[in-house]
Amino acid sequence: MTALDMAKRGARVILACRVKETGEAAAYDIRTLSGNNQVLFMKLDLASIASIRSFCKTFLSSEPRLDILINNAGIEGKGKTEDGFNLVFGVNHLGHFLLTHLLLDRLKQCSPSRIVVLASSAHSRGRIDFKNLNPSGESWMEIIQAYCDSKLANILFARELANRLQGTDVTCYSVHPGVVRTHLGRNLPQWLMLPIYPIAWLLLKNPMEGAQTSIYCAVQEGIEMYSGRYFADCQVQQVKPHARDDAVAKKLWEVSEDLLGLLK
């Protein structure tokens, strides 16, 4: 829905998606609904360093502008990434970290520009354990905890990124979209989903409602002073102390660079 809104505003939109068939179908639907033919699919798998680098190489060679980067992907599930990281932490944090790193120069060249990082209120239950950033994530309790940890990492990433971008005219924001009826939990076991689904259908936001804060942070004028802050319901929200610890944010940045081989 965020991409559809951007397309309706006349933007050239690149849908960076893992699955070609669904990505191309989404691009077609958005072109049809918006009347904007400048909506394209490019393949990107955030669970693969090679895929992220390939995407960025293709994007930078074919697209002269990048004005808004929305780090929207999220996953809950078992397993490891292609490079051996915990799947949830690897996709939700490390994948976005590397993608943003590789596209940052283009964002600076096109400033004023913005970066939006999809976080979650689940960050409040997250923790950054530098001794165990890559847990096995075999049990569902471990997977849910890894999700909370990754959302905390998203907020700390946006804070540290904002610090590093001071004076560049590139701003960034972390966003809680609300609890939205999406396919995020598609990998959760059926026994867990059955009691949740009827409640979710009644109480959760629909995708258009869930997109509003991302859209706000992407296009709203006059919020540059809030770079690095956390937004929910289109307003700046205060987070708990562990989600605004700049020392932890700085260390997480450095450890992420090391894990991704960016310091070599």
From TrEMBL:
It comes from the Eukaryota. Keywords: Oxidoreductase. This is Dehydrogenase/reductase SDR family member 13-like. It holds the Pfam family adh_short. The lineage of its organism: Eukaryota, Metazoa, Chordata, Craniata, Vertebrata. The keyword Oxidoreductase applies. Belongs to the short-chain dehydrogenases/reductases (SDR) family. Signal peptide: none annotated. It comes from Ranitomeya imitator. InterPro entries: NAD(P)-bd_dom_sf, SDR_fam.
